[in-house]
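My main concern about presentation is that the manuscript never shows what a single data entry looks like. In essence, backbone conformation is discretised, so a fold becomes a row of integers matching the chain in length. An entry of this sort, consisting of the sequence and the corresponding backbone structure tokens, reads as follows:
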Amino acid sequence: MASAGNFNIDDPAKQEKIRREPHEYIPTAGRHGAYRPKPYDREANEFPKMAASLAKDSKGRPKYPRPELKDFLTQRGVSIPLEAAQTQHEQAVKAWDDFCTRSICANQSQVDEWLKIHG
């Protein structure tokens, strides 16, 4: 015979939320205990993550931002042709993407090591 679920909680949506989300069961005196939700920080708890996106400068801005086309339209105060700027921009984005891909870490110790070297 298949189980029809737990009948201890009146609201099925509340029961499903407890089942799916991180929580802590606290036993109490009486028939049932209580479920207390635990805060879950996705960025802190999930791996793999890209360590280059975590590196910040002294003002809290990203240390390795994605190159933008506007940065390649002028060099030393002289405007350059759009096609040449687009080519340089594409090369810079590819180099940035390769750098970010190499910074992928599988656990927190790898992130700490990467930030120690590059951060």
